[in-house]
Amino acid sequence: MSTPVLPGLRLRQLPRTIEPLHRETSGSYLGRLAAANRLSHQELSAHIQDPDRIHPGKLSALHVLHCLSGHPVDRLLRALPDLRTAELTARFTAQPLKPLPDKCWTTQPVCTRCLAGLGITTHASHHVPVSTNICLRHGRWIGRYGQQLELGTVPEVIRAQRHHYNLVRRHGQRIVTYAMAEATDICLRWWDSDRFDRRWRRRMTELSGPKWHAFKDDIELVACTYPDIVALAGLFASPHLRFLPFTGKERDLRRFIREVRERAAPGYSLDAAGKRDPLIRWIEEEPSDRGLPLYPWRPPSRPAPEHVSVP
User: Fold this and answer.
1) What is the pTM of this model?
2) 150 three-state secondary structure
3) Is 140 helix (H, G, I), strand (E, B) or coil?
4) Fewer CB within 10 Å, N or C, the chain?
5) What letter does residue 24 receive in the DSSP assignment?
6) Gap between the Cα atoms of 239 and 139, Å rounded
7) Listing from the earlier edge strand, what are the strands of the sheet with 134-135?
8) DSSP for residue 244
9) What confidence tens digit (pLDDT) does each residue in 271-297 have?
10) 102 vs 221: which has the higher pLDDT
């Protein structure tokens, strides 16, 4: 059986074609296709949109890439998820292909070492789970602005990515995203006041040398703080551990604080924390946050204690 095609080819196939990458963005593939034919992305876009050349009506992205690349439509739909719609996949693929859920996936530059292994020298972008920060195959941190960082001297950062994935498998993406936001906020507030920062400072020294200097959004600093944030997020993501401070039992609160010390804040003490401490604020505000529309847990039906002290 022949592969179905879109009707009415309205663009000629380019002289050189290339294979799309797995889960590549359609914009990335179009840019690489242009580069392979020694065209700028702007020149190719102008050619596609030229009303004197292409008529009637606007071409869909799937139609454009099918015409220019010469690849069958079903192959493009399998490789490029942002082209998928229920109608197109039902029409052109033997097996149903679902669009990627927006809340669970994001776009990210492809690891340059992965690209080099495929003989690709241009940049590319692909769809990845939102919990992805590191190429585990090559141990590289992939920054949001395209920067990439070798992590060979800080293997615990690489292990934190595996921990992050495990949390998502255990608790689900929605819960882990919420917990990561909470953990990030608390850790950054601690570090802004120069508290509990020994671990990430040690990693910065291992990664960048003893005379390192970094700003808050620098890729090195973001990578080196990642393990502590993931560890604390694991505490907040667990329904059993999360609600320990609210059972009214002193031993449960002791267990919760012990987990905080072990995961992200060695030496942490409620007695020494002070009212402005971010974890104290979290304990005070968490019961009221349960009424928020995005709150993803089902809390136990036990009232929060008015006050519990820890010696």
Assistant:
1) 0.87
2) strand
3) strand
4) N
5) B
6) 31
7) 134-135, 140-142, 148-150
8) G
9) 888 889 999 999 999 999 999 999 999
10) 221
| For helices 41-49 and 26-36, angle between their N-to-C axes, nearest 10 degrees | 110
Among left, alpha and beta (phi > 0; psi -120 to 50; other), residue 27 is alpha
Around Cβ 217, how many Cβ atoms within 10 Å? 10
Among the listed residues 196, 179, 132, the one whose alpha carbon sits nearest the alpha carbon of residue 158 = 132
Who wins on pLDDT, 208 or 98?
Answer: 208
Per-domain residue ranges of the chain: 1-101, 155-289
State the chain's maximal CA–CA distance in angstroms: 80
311 band by pLDDT with thresholds 50, 70 and 90 = very low
Question: What single DSSP character describes residue 14?
Answer: P
Q: Report DSSP letters for 246-272, one per residue.
A: GSS-HHHHHHHHHHHHHHT-TT--HHH
Euclidean distance between the first and the last CA atom of the chain, given in angstroms as a whole number: 76
Task: Report the C-alpha gap between 242 and 260 in whole angstroms.
Answer: 11
* Residue in this structure with the two tokens 């776009």, named with its chain if needed: 107
User: Residue 274: how many CA atoms within 13 Å on its side-chain side?
Assistant: 6
Nearest to 137 by CA among 145, 128, 146: 128
Asked if residues 10 and 59 have their Cβ atoms less than 8 Å apart, the reply is yes
Q: What is the DSSP letter of 89?
A: H
Vertex 92, ends 17 and 32: CA angle to 5°?
Answer: 25
Collapsed DSSP state (helix, strand, coil) of residue 8? coil
Angle CA(90)–CA(93)–CA(97) in degrees, nearest 5?
70
- Distance (Å, rounded) from C-alpha 107 to C-alpha 285? 33
The runs of H, that is alpha helices, within 172-265 are 173-192, 198-208, 219-237, 239-242, 250-263
Q: What pLDDT score was predicted for residue 151? A: 98
Question: What does DSSP assign to residue 52?
Answer: T
In three-state secondary structure terms, 119 is: coil
Number of residues assigned to the chain? 311
